Amino acid sequence: MMNKILKRTAVSMTVLAALGSSAVVSAKASSQPNVVILFADDMGYADAGFQNQSQDVVTPNLDRLAASGAILTAGYVTAPVCGPSRAGLTTGRYQQRFGYHNNTGPFVREEGIIQGMPDDQQTFGHYFQQAGYTTGMIGKHHDGKQRHYWPHHRGFDEFYGFNNGAANYFVGPNNQQNVKRKPFSSIYRNDVLDDNFDEYLTDRFGTEAVSFIERHKEDPFFLYVPFNGIHGPLQATEEDLKRFEHIDNLKRRKLVAMNYNMDKNIGRILDSLEENDLTENTIVVFLSDNGGKYEGNYSYNHPLRAEKGTLWDGGMRIPFAVSWPGTIPAGQTIDDPIISLDILPTVAAATNVETQAEWKLDGVDILPLLKGEEKKLENRFLFWNTSTAGAVRDDEWKLVMPNIRNKRPRVQLFNISNDISESKDLAKQHPEQVKRLQDAWNAWDAENEDAKWGWNKNMFPVETNWRNLDSL
């Protein structure tokens, strides 16, 4: 405890010095706000009520979170699947910088290849630990199998959850009706197995998140809650299913019920902040790790094109909202392209944690935009590379390369600012935009590492021209 007090005091003194001796600052209320990052799993663009895209979803708590701050209508993540998206979010860097193009296990297995985020990569947990924060991660981790990859070795004082791509929602010993359902993932508190509870898993993560807030409410804390909801398997509680009996499609009904349950637990977290008078001293960010997959978990992405696993917007454009009552004005809708890489520099700015050049962050601080101090972000490129497909967009245009493995790959160009559904390919009409965007993508990709597992272009058996423009 004394070490934490000393760290907090040092941080507060640094902040006060930076602000000047004449500034009167409350260390808790002004210099060290709390951070809560809520991360859904496989939640489609249309599956949050505040998106106004689906009539069947019920998410009152997400809606109040969004209404209290800003909805980011063009919010993206760095990958259309779970693992790489999480690597980008937690490091604040394009995961291709360190060769993390594809999911780690259980889906990708290669003999002799160790899969996981390299040990030399720091996470936002590390940075906030070093700034004197108590850091916690509750929910789904999806990184390397070896224990040194687990969150309590990657910057988090406390980890509660599982390390896998998916988990059974009914994991307790007394859930006999579900005990044989797969996949089953063991739940751990740091290194200690926790198999003695009967809560529905999303409820369990809500309980743990509230406990973390209650135990650390007197200290500045950084809480990362990557729910496994609403990733498959489709398992909902009977209570939640009954609420949605009017939905005829049973699988969609289960998905909407699971979504509602996650929303209830987000509500418990927001209520805990309010009950402890922490709402105005906490910046809360909500987003999903990638788009939904209808035939996978029956989530909806409309009006976006395609789904999880692809680089059309349905794969990585997601529900995204930020709230900080009293600092970020309520009721905003922001249409600038935003990416999950922006979260780390933004929450660092909000908490007066100075970012360092050696962090090599790829995002930007959007706090001035959120606070209304800036009307628009400077135009920039956002990039994607799955090692089999590539994409790039700026404010107005988006280029998609659906298969960069082909010797003569095709490209698609969309005026994304006016064609959210990517319905009209304009590549032949605007070759100058194709070249501009492809040149930018090539320059970015040249600075990345090759994929450390999964498909690697240097392993492809033929000479390719996938970086050339002759595909038009």
Please identify, by name, the CATH architecture of the largest domain. Answer: 3-Layer(aba) Sandwich
Whole-number total of structural domains: 3
Low-confidence segments, given as residue ranges, are: 1-30, 460-472
Distance N to C terminus: 63 Å
CA-based gyration radius = 22 Å
β content, as a range? 5-15%
Q: What order do the SSEs take from the amino end to the carboxyl end, as H and E?
A: HHEHEEHHEEEEHEHHEHHEEEHHEEEEH
- Assembly type of the chains comes to single chain
CATH class of the largest domain: Alpha Beta
Write the layout of secondary structure elements.
Elements: H1 2-19, H2 27-31, E1 34-40, H3 60-67, E2 70-72, E3 75-76, H4 82-91, H5 124-130, E4 134-141, E5 158-163, E6 188-189, E7 192-193, H6 201-216, E8 221-226, H7 238-243, H8 250-275, E9 282-288, H9 294-297, H10 313-316, E10 320-323, E11 332-334, E12 338-339, H11 343-350, H12 367-370, E13 382-385, E14 390-393, E15 398-401, E16 412-414, H13 431-445
Parallel strand pairs: 1-8, 1-9, 2-11, 3-12, 4-5, 4-8
Antiparallel strand pairs: 2-10, 5-6, 6-7, 9-10, 13-14, 14-15, 15-16
Helix pairs in contact: 3-8, 6-8
